[in-house]
Amino acid sequence: MSCAKVFSQFEVFAAGELGCRRSWTDAEKVRIVEESYRGHRQGSVVAHRHGISRALLTQWRRAYDLGQLDGAPTAFTALEIAPDPVPLPQGAPCGAAADARVEITLANGRRLAVPADIEGGALTRLVQVLERA
């Protein structure tokens, strides 16, 4: 009868090497998240540099985007309401309304012109990206 033994490789850490569970203040989380948004594909590099997992950094990014971290950008921005648009004359082609555009001035001074019928979720994502850039 044959007896096979399977050994898995594992690493044993001494108790002193493990340390204790770290806690991060909201200010530290905001700093790390903002650092991860700079440049191209910086998330995993920043996570490794600070000794956290990419999954944790993703959670922090989500909370940051939703304004749940102190110091994160607020969900409100300045808004200027323009007067009512001039009504189209009778008999104007219906396609004229389809070409309507909305111009938005962001908090960082950038101006954004989008079609009037843009989906709300797409506009939200676009504004968030442009505010961070």
Q: Short summary of the structure?
A:
The protein is mainly alpha-helical and 133 residues long.
**Poorly predicted parts:** none
- Globally, the shape reads elongated
The total count of helices amounts to: 6
Strand order within the widest sheet?
A: 1-2
Mean pLDDT across the residues is 76
Measured distance between first and last alpha carbons: 68 Å
> Can you give the helix content as a percent range?
25-40%
Computed structural class: mainly alpha
Give the amount of beta strand, in percent: 5-15%
The Rg value, from CA coordinates, equals: 25 Å
The biggest beta sheet reads: 2 strands, antiparallel
**Strand segment count:** 2
Order of helices and strands: HHHHHEEH
Summarize the structure in words.
- One of its GO terms (biological process) is DNA transposition.
- Belongs to the transposase 8 family.
- Pfam families: HTH_Tnp_1.
- The protein has 133 residues and is mainly α.
- Among the domains are: 44 residues; 35 residues, no CATH class.
- It has 6 helices and 2 strands; from the N terminus they run H-H-H-H-H-E-E-H.
- Strands 1-2 form a two-stranded antiparallel sheet.
- Helix 2 packs antiparallel against helix 3 and helix 2 crosses helix 4.
- The longest helix has 13 residues.
- It is elongated.
- The chain starts with 14 loop residues before the first helix and ends with a helix.
